[in-house]
Amino acid sequence: MPFTRFISKNSEGAHRLAEQLDFHFSGRTMKNRLMKAAMAEQLATWDPDSAENSGIPTKELIELYRRWGQGANNWGMIVTGNISISYESIAIPGDAIITQDAPFSGPRFEAFKELASVAKANGSLIVGQLNHPGRQQQAKYARGREVIAPSAIQLGARAHFPLIPSSPSASHALLTRPPPPNTAPKSLMTFAKPREATQTDITTVINSFAHAAAFLAAAGFDGIELHGAHGYLIAQFLSPSTNLRTDAYGGSSLRNRMRLLLEIGAAIRARVSPTFVVGVKLNSVEFQAGGLTPDEAAELCRALQQQAGAGFDFVELSGGTLETVDDMRWEKPSTAAREAFFLEFAKQIAPALGTPAERKTKLFVTGGLRTVGGMLAALESGCDGVGLGRPAAQEPGFAGDVVEGRVQAAVRAVPPFDLGSNLGIPLVMAAVQMRQIGQGKEPFDGSDEDRVAEFQRALGEWFKATAASQDSLSQHGYFDF
Questions:
Q1: DSSP 8-state class, residue 205
Q2: What dotted CATH number matches 14-468?
């Protein structure tokens, strides 16, 4: 049975997506304009009692990246899911981890080497996304410790992510119809108490990011992307809503709030080869009062391009935080309107970097793009490339199919797993599909109503089991399907 796809209303000029993209600072080249954006695979090892045995890429994770790396014309750049720089400060168990004392040898290093090798076997650039959650760490994984943040502002009751319903009945309601605004089931996540980071903490964070980048470079990775979006530590320093410091790293001055990011970039550049790619994911908008605005995002991008010693090859624009995930709904009915969601912000930010021909820091946009027409619109808006996440979980070779003209659009999943539903729900499907790929299977067809009905039943049972063991530190990852 063939896939049901979105409809691309304008595919004229699709050859532009196949054009190479040169990075100024590293001198590296993407073979096309399509980036496999980061997604939470949760396929690394996890042991709540052992840092040594946690965060190591498994054979399933390596197989997933082998599939993304297949094909002469597949993804120009492949960005991994979160790689935590601290065992004590993880975003999600099952993420890969590179601690500050991780040696450039041994099982962890060899696993990362194998992942890099298979991902780049056909010319894709493999880039590791490095992250520190800051205040956005679940309390149970902090185990009573205070976590660091720019300011001691706790992420509280407003933060919820509709992956784990509050009750089995909520689970069934969630899976039978798209949730109306502001009624999605609350997650059971509570977050650790933060304290204001000291200068010593900040120095440790900078050194940890730099060590992780050097580790990945030694393992054969082509570059790294700093996660400076979605409410994590770097984003917390950038945002005036979470950074109330009065020292050189905070206050009303954006220059002060961006200082941590710039110092991390410079520290990485000092530790790696000049040909190593360094990028950053930023919020184009935070969807909350007092948060980072598109104008500030534009000013930040301009500074990243001009900052001596940092050398950011690219900026990926996304948006939102865990506090605002409910607001990130695709309210408009048409695919074109949904695809334009972040493009409106990209159009405001792109001029800060100059024209595509003259800029040194390249610009990518990620979020909701599903058709060739939408991708071309991103290039027309001033972006240099586009990032795609969930389409890569359904079809690992999607980029190659687009570049070679076999498809014009991504598979359109059955509601509530399509673009029209709450943001969190489709991510569950993508996570299970990635798990299938890692197991050597073909991902199930998200556009097949019968298969999706089976998936919904399995998901409902998993939700029940997850809610029943919500306090477990061992629980991680998704289920087999």
A1: H
A2: 3.20.20.70
